[in-house]
């Protein structure tokens, strides 16, 4: 049975949907400046696919903890040791529960170390527990930077290795990476290159527009369109989405009671 994840509508009014099985096999990269609707897109994807597949979300800003209210995700506050987080990740895979790793309130260095420990725990799970899992990493440039960032050198190296394992070697272990970044230029190229599906939102810097256009097979003139995209509008391409680049307007997600709605 093919499971379609309703993401919204294409420019012509047709339904825009992900083939979930294909997405699990081919991974996804999302780019969009602050305010472009990137987190909104991730939320829509998570809500629509939650009944069908186990999920793990690396959440630097606490944006996704309310998934627990509607879908039963376990929220893990990353306050324990790295060994504790690795053990929790192993249990998550063993018991097939969906989880949000909440990194809100931690310093960047602590966020990077916690995310790396948790991702490594998911990756190192026993073979008997390699069930399909959607692993969403928001603000991926923090954990797989193209150059030295705010985290110390050792933390950055471990985190980059964990992200590379997720995107390059995770498929055999059932791990399907969905990574989102504000700027492609700040994301390690070897991590970004492993995605086969792309959703590119509004961006203004030439270097980011050029990289987005290159990934989508667009020319320099077409790259200018990324400046004019509206909030919630993305140019999508990939085997799980469509074989040619098309504009997609992401549908509204359903906020939990008491949670702020977008807009």
Automatic annotation (TrEMBL):
This is AAA-like domain protein. The lineage of its organism: Bacteria, Pseudomonadati, Pseudomonadota, Alphaproteobacteria, Hyphomicrobiales. It comes from Methylobrevis pamukkalensis. InterPro entries: HerA-like, HerA_central, P-loop_NTPase. Residues 13-74 form the Helicase HerA central domain. It holds the Pfam family DUF87.
